[in-house]
Amino acid sequence: MDNSLFPTVPVFLDRSSLDQSWGFRLQGGIDYRLPLSIKKVSPNTPSHNKLYAGDGVTAINGQDASSMKHEDAENLLRNALQIQLTVRRGQLAAVRPSRPPVKFGASSQPHVNSALQNTTTPNNYRRF
Amino acid sequence: MSAYYYQDANGHNGAQYQQQSYNGGYPQQYPVDDYMVPEEEWEREAVLDPAWERQQKKTFTAWCNSHLRKVGTSIENIEEDFQNGLKLMLLLEVISNEQLIKPDRGRMRFHKIANVNKALDFITSKGVKLMVGAEEIVDGNLKMTLGMIWTIILRFAIQDISVEEMSAKEGLLLWCQRKTAPYKNVNVQNFHISFKDGLAFCALIHRHRPDLLDYSKLTKDDPLGNLNLAFDIAEKHLDIPKMLDAEEINNSIKADEKVVMTYVSSYYHAFSTTRKAEQAASRICKVLSVNQENEQMMAEYERLASDLLEWIRKTKPWLENRATDNTLHGTQAKLGEFRDYCRSQKPPRLSQKAKLETDFNTLQTRLRLSNRPAFTPTEGKLIANIVDAWKGLELAEKGFEDWLLRELRRLERLDHLAKKFQHKCNIHEEWSYGKIDLLTSSDFKRCSLNDLRALSRKHLAFESDLAAHQDRVEQIAAIAQELNVLGYDQIAMVNQRCQQICNEWDQLGDLTHKRRVALTDAERIVERIDSLFLEYAKKASPYVNWLDGAREDLVDMFFIHTLDEIRGLIEAHHQFKATLGEAGAEYKNIIRLEISAKWNDVQALVPQRDQDLETEFIKQQQNERFRVQFAQKANVVGPWLERQHEQLQQLTVQVVGTLEQHQKKLESMEHSVLQYRPHIDELEKYNQQIQECMIFENRHTPYTMEVIRVAWEQLTTHLTKQIAEIKNQIYTLEKKGIGEEQMNEFRATFAHFDKSRTRRLDPKEFRACLIACGYNIRDDRQGDVDFQRIMANVDPTQTGFVTFESFLDFMTRECSEEDNVDQLTLAFKTLAGDQPFITAEALKRELPIEQAEWCLRRMKPYVGPGAIPGAYDYKIFSAALYGESDL
């Protein structure tokens, strides 16, 4: 994947004690099929004005986050007083269509029902 | 709705909206708004009825405390505790759920006045015209304070009960009337009389919570009892503190309607809260039940997988075992076991395997659609593992069956050969018995010429006999050889006997020669030839030999498999019988005792042979009938299965009509297929008959039982899979909240750009697809940035491709932007009485017991301000349910 157009920025956060919350909500992870990202940020917190809702987290303390499970990422963040996040701004910002979609006539071809099938179990059978 | 009349404290009657100035002095200056009426009323009174003042004080204090307790404070003396304005401001914050301006900190009078003014300003800002001044409150004027509190109650607790655009009071009354309508002994017309006997309160409670009291036991005759009962229950179970005094209410001619309204309004809010709580509880249950179902499915998958793998592990060695007792009977028994296995053990296991696969797919779909992490079975129980193990099993099965059939054929032939060997050996040994002795006897030494000549001739005959026997011995040796090749288990004995016979034969040959020489020598001395005897001997021996051969052949075992073979034998037999006639003729010429004995034997054996052949013929006929029976059935079942396969294939490739219709079609097909099962069973029965008769070929049909069995299994498995697939699709649509038409559009769009038909798009194809869907992806750097951003979302694990599922998720994610976590948290907050934590009791009270316990197992204890022991954090729990965490 060519990400040269989509640069990442480092974000440093620190807090005075483990009781103080960072102030953001983390979502995603490889087990949730969503990129690790920031869902929302609360004001008057260490992450206020440093992180924004929709930011994608590509690395935590230098560790690549693209194949991290949610729980692992959570643990890394909970138990630290200082963290360095590598962030892709606005990665999950919703992009909306600006025009109505083109309709592809379903009548010209049969409904490819198999498109929705799980690819790991092929649907073949033996004729006798 | 009829208007109602009320009597004011001074006994004036008046309809609503009309007010008389009876307290002299104060003109009616203000526009008459609905809820303003009562306020004006009290303002004009110089003196409040002492009873009512007492009631109001008690009730209003209780009401204020029911709210102040939420912020951990309370009042005791209503005219004193509000003097500095602080608790007043707190009260307003609690009941309005809004933040007031910060109060002034200070003990001076002007501080107090300022704070009270802040409170009064807030009330005014809510659209209430107040007639009370801050000083009066600060000075502790009871009447004014009560009046102000009543205004607050009216505005914040009762005004919202606007039912069909009436005044708050009317609305509240109407609500009471509606709720108590089913109760015949309750008649709510007003607030100061109708509630006195307590039945109205009880009816209100019973209407919403019939579990809390037994209304049928109550009567008008015990007003005190009714009132106290209602107040007790409301306090204990509805969290409404006692605000009224039962005796006061009962004893007064007319109760103060304000206090009654205040208390009744609490009931209104309690039951609407119950409604809110019910809604919150059902929302929570819906979310939880999805999770619970998923967890159950995961556990069930693991259990089924273990079970199946264990069974495969146990069964495979049995199928790979090649130990044999080398008997036909034992091997046939093994084949029988195998058939049993195929018929009764395997089919349920096959369904189990199919169920595992479909369950796995269904589970993954459900998990994906409820934003839960994908399911990874424990190691060794992945679908791939199961498929592998199953393949291994089927391989072992095939090997086992092939081996069994080979063994049966081998053993059968061995059986036949062994019998033949024994028989031939017996006959030979019978013949050769005593020959050696004869050959070694020196009976010729003292013979006359005639005798010598006889002996010599005899010997010659014997030599012919021997020669004629040669191929018989060779046959024996040949059979022994074949037995060796076929691995006969008693081959040692066979070889030994054969060796014996061969040795003996050699010996015989040797001895014969020696005797010949001896006799010739003797003859040379004694010259005698009886030509007749010689001729006789020459004639007799082949004849005898023929008889022996005939006798042996007549009892020869036959190894028959087809009708043609048996016909051939019968033909040969008939021919033989024909020759008997000729032989009989010859027999008359050559009559000797032994020949006659042998002839009788042959004669006796012929009918026996006739019978044997006849029996075999019947048997072969029956076999043929079995073949035909099987073939006829198979030729019906086979094509039927083929047609079903085709039909199903059609249904797989194309969905015609709505998904629900398609599902019904599949299900009705499944039903009719299952109903066909008895035909398959019948075919199995025919097949069993065939196998028991050791029939191996059937040229009347191209279908074998195995082929049909496999086709049947495939058909049922395929059907199950398709039905599950359709169900998943319907479920997907439901969850995504999109219709079938839209889904088909998505599919058509995706398929259009999937040029390579790989069911996934590469970035170029996907980019074009997005543009077609109306996304503005420009052909420049900004467009590239936008595209990469979308790509990172759609393909988070960077496989480089976009599958249809990811595409669908992306397109429909926009549709459901609601914040599930916040909604769930709110639901819990409602159940927790607005507190930031929830207790086990609250969970068990509001949710069904299994859901409550499920939550308790997973919730973490609450740590934070106001934490009490036994408090659970529902915020973290709710977030975790959706894969989010607050950090």
TrEMBL record, chain A:
Alphabetized, the UniProt keywords read:
Cytoplasm, LIM domain, Metal-binding, Zinc
Recorded hits in SUPFAM superfamilies, A to Z, give: PDZ domain-like
Q: Which GO terms describe its molecular function?
A: actin binding; muscle alpha-actinin binding
**Membrane-crossing residue ranges in chain numbering:** none
The record's subcellular location field reads:
Cytoplasm
For the PDZ domain, which residue ranges apply?
A: 10-80
This protein is called PDZ domain-containing protein
**Organism field:** Rotaria socialis
Automatic annotation (TrEMBL), chain B:
User: SMART domains this protein is in?
Assistant: CH, EFh, efhand_Ca_insen, SPEC
Q: What Pfam family is a match for this entry?
A: Spectrin
Task: Tell me which CDD domains the record gives.
Answer: CH_ACTN_rpt1, CH_ACTN_rpt2, EFh, SPEC
InterPro entries given in the database record: Actinin_actin-bd_CS (IPR001589), CH_dom (IPR001715), CH_dom_sf (IPR036872), EF-hand-dom_pair (IPR011992), EF-hand_Ca_insen (IPR014837), EF_Hand_1_Ca_BS (IPR018247), EF_hand_dom (IPR002048), Spectrin/alpha-actinin (IPR018159)
Annotated EF-hand domain residues: 741-776, 782-817
The answer to whether the entry has keyword Metal-binding is yes
Query: Can you name this protein?
Result: Alpha-actinin
Keywords of the record, alphabetical order, are: Actin-binding, Calcium, Metal-binding, Repeat
- Give the UniProt family note: Belongs to the alpha-actinin family.
GO molecular function annotation: actin binding; calcium ion binding
**Domain of life of the organism encoding this protein:** Eukaryota
Give the Calponin-homology (CH) domain ranges.
54-157, 166-272
Does the UniProt entry include the keyword Membrane? no
Gene3D superfamilies (alphabetical): 1.20.58.60, Calponin-like domain, EF-hand
Organism from which the protein derives: Rotaria socialis
